[in-house]
Design a protein that fits this description.
Helix content: 25-40%
Number of helices: 12
Structural class: alpha+beta
Low-confidence stretches: 1-24, 51-84, 99-114
Shape: elongated
Radius of gyration: 49 Å
Largest sheet: 9 strands, mixed
């Protein structure tokens, strides 16, 4: 009987609430949930509506939006109408933008009209952005002011820095070379540190050998047989350029070798050095090993040194010797300073001994050594200095 009376009282309250609209008393079991939800909207209420908060059903009070007002209205019950739900999400949702409806009202009577939310800076017009960008560019594109030499850096570079860049060692090692009086600049021995030089004009020597201080490249290639001594071949044959295709700087060969002749050939971008190495005035010697068939007369070397009459004049060898003899097979060494076409083959053929195989083993002071066929190596600074001394550079 008590339960029925209580139900009647509850049902009466429900009828009274529906009729008068007074504030309902929360149940015992729902107090905790209402307190937790009073500070924030439900997940289904966290949405942003396009419509303004001043329309029908909207509220200008922040407490009413959260559902925690003291005057009346349901607290976090069923979802509200569109205007109030959007206002609650904008004003009470965590991280949501705050608008004028959430702070001071958005109706037509509110002071100052709608206000901007926190953290939203006013946007600048495009014309102002263009002017700022143009001003920044003009600031960084100003012409460089040339200061007088008395206030700027001294002319030239430090000698030890130039030597280190040329590959003579570290700066400390180059300073030791200067202290040991092994460095010359324009014929004068340098004994003090910090001397400035011009790498483009001054002649620098270490131990009497000229140092290539500019961006010159020097390579030695062991040319295989069948490779044409040109940098490009229009017929598509294998040439010297195929071995230096990955070089940005244009290189050219020093002299030539026959297609079937093997041995050392130099590649560089130093035009003056290449010209002097091939000029007959400087007489740079080349040494060849030739495989021929015997027997050989004892005076063959004398004949070659005295000169062999060829179609384009006499050709003389500077040195001749027999390196190896196996039966009728002879390996002879011929040294000469001339560079005419096929000169070694023509000389031996005119003497009655055609060449079966020919290899150039040295070019001036640069020996072929144990370099393998088809290998390209960079020449050392000492070798470059020896070449320059050979042609008086």
């Amino acid at each position: 009987m008590r339960s029925s009376g209580r139900n009647n009282r509850d049902s009466g309250r429900g009828d009274h609430r529906g009729a008068g609209g007074s504030t309902p008393r929360p149940k015992a079991g729902g107090k905790r949930d209402d307190k937790q939800r009073a500070g924030r909207p439900r997940p289904e209420e966290r949405r942003y509506d396009v419509g303004g908060s001043g329309g029908p059903g909207g509220s200008s009070d922040r407490k009413d939006e959260r559902g925690g007002s003291k005057s009346g209205g349901p607290k976090s019950g069923a979802p509200k109408s569109g205007g109030s739900r959007g206002a609650a999400a904008r004003g009470g949702a965590k991280g949501g933008p705050r608008t004028g409806a959430a702070s001071k009202g958005s109706g037509p009577g509110a002071k100052g009209g709608p206000q901007r939310g926190r953290g939203q800076a006013p946007s600048r017009p495009r014309e102002l952005d263009a002017k700022i960008e143009e001003r920044n560019r003009a600031r960084h594109n100003k012409p460089q002011v040339k200061t007088p030499k008395t206030f700027g850096d001294e002319e030239g570079e430090r000698l030890q820095k130039v030597l280190a860049r040329a590959g003579m060692g570290s700066r400390r090692a180059c300073e030791e070379l200067i202290d040991q009086a092994r460095v010359e600049v324009n014929g004068q021995v340098v004994m003090e540190q910090g001397v400035r030089v011009d790498p483009e004009k001054d002649e620098i020597k270490v131990d009497g050998l000229t140092v290539a201080t500019q961006s010159y490249l020097f390579f030695a290639l062991n040319k295989p047989a069948g490779v044409v001594s040109t940098m490009e071949d229009p017929d598509g044959r294998q040439c010297l350029g195929d071995y230096v295709t990955n070089r940005e700087t244009r290189l050219f060969h020093v002299g030539r070798l026959d297609t079937e002749t093997e041995g050392i050939i130099l590649l560089t971008n130093h035009g003056e050095l290449a010209h002097r190495l091939t000029h007959p005035r400087y007489g740079v010697k080349k040494t060849y090993l030739a495989a021929i068939q015997g027997p050989l007369p004892r005076d063959l070397g004398k004949q070659l040194k005295d000169g062999i009459q060829l179609e384009d004049g006499y050709a003389r060898a500077d040195h001749f010797r027999v390196v190896e003899n196996t039966g009728k097979n002879y390996l002879v060494e011929v040294t000469l300073h001339e560079g005419r076409k096929h000169i070694v083959r023509r000389m031996l053929a005119e003497a009655g001994f055609p060449v079966e195989r020919l290899v150039r083993t040295s070019f001036g002071p640069i020996p072929l050594g144990d370099q393998k066929s088809g290998w390209l190596r960079r020449m050392t600074n000492t070798e470059v200095g020896m070449l320059m001394r050979e042609v008086e550079l």
